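User: Predict structure, ligand magnesium ion.
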Amino acid sequence: MGATSTTVIVTEGLTRSFGSQVAVDALTVTIEAGEVFGFLGHNGAGKTTTVRMLNGVLAPTAGRVRVFGLDPTTDGHRIRARTGVLTETPALDSRLTARMTLLHFAEIYGVPPRERTRRVDELLALFELEKRADSKVGGFSKGMRQRLALARTLIHDPEIIFLDEPTSGLDPVAIRDVHHTIEQLTHRGRTVFLCTHNLAEAERLCDRVAVLAHGRVLAIGTTQELGSRLNRGHRISLEIEAQDIARAVKLFAATPPVSLAEAVTDRTAVRNGSATIVLHGVSRSEVPAMIQTAIQHDLKLYRVQPEEPSLEDVYFALQEL
Ligand SMILES: Nc1ncnc2c1ncn2[C@@H]1O[C@H](COP(=O)(O)OP(=O)(O)O)[C@@H](O)[C@H]1O
Ligand SMILES: [Mg+2]
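Assistant: Predicted complex:
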């Protein structure tokens, strides 16, 4: 991003309570234009409440928030003119056709009349809804409805797109389509704020993630940064002679710093006479010593590979801290 980066969202101690319950607890975050920022947490973590505050539809209880340098509490309408929000359960009028739905929103969002038809056609094409453009939404599948809802969110070409659990409840094909669309948006330089409880989704799509629990951010960073901040979660896989597997597991289980040595059954590898064991809790600097131990005990090594911790490892390790 470098010197040309532009901050589009900044919050400091952003807080929202409902009665005695703190839904969002002192959120401090800065998001740059063009980032895909993942907001990761279980149900009730505070994701939707945050999106609502950032768009000025819900007032904070405390803290500071600026979107495009504007205060959502007083300039919500100016912010919303430049953001698109896909809510968790988008309401679509089943009596309208896809085209009518988009034209209606183009009007609401002030897309100039002479540009509306072109814009709507573009979005129908982008979301592969052309063939059903003049069918009523009532007959659409869940995936088609979600594609139409996404198209509607983009009608005014917003600079920040908030996606609140965009793939929950969709089948794998629809999920793939939504992921593809998000990737396309990022190629066009849009900022995406993606709320999800799906770790694989965040890992695949996001530049950075914030891990949220009970309204509090447990960590913010790239997947790699989060992983290296935790000492646990490092894994090393060793490919060895299949017949040595039990011996190797026993050997490494008794060799600190390995916290767990487990055999991984990979049928192709076993057929080739080799098998993999995975060692947990080893840091990179300890790898040479592990290799030496293996050699001293006559284990034939075919491959030694440190594995990056997955977001899932990070997520559960953080929850336990
Ligand atoms: N309008 C509201 N009134 C009372 N409590 C609310 C309201 N909106 C959200 N909450 C509570 O705030 C917490 C965070 O909710 P939410 O932001 O919807 O979480 P998420 O989107 O991560 O599932 C939850 O415990 C929820 O019950
Ligand atoms: Mg929510």
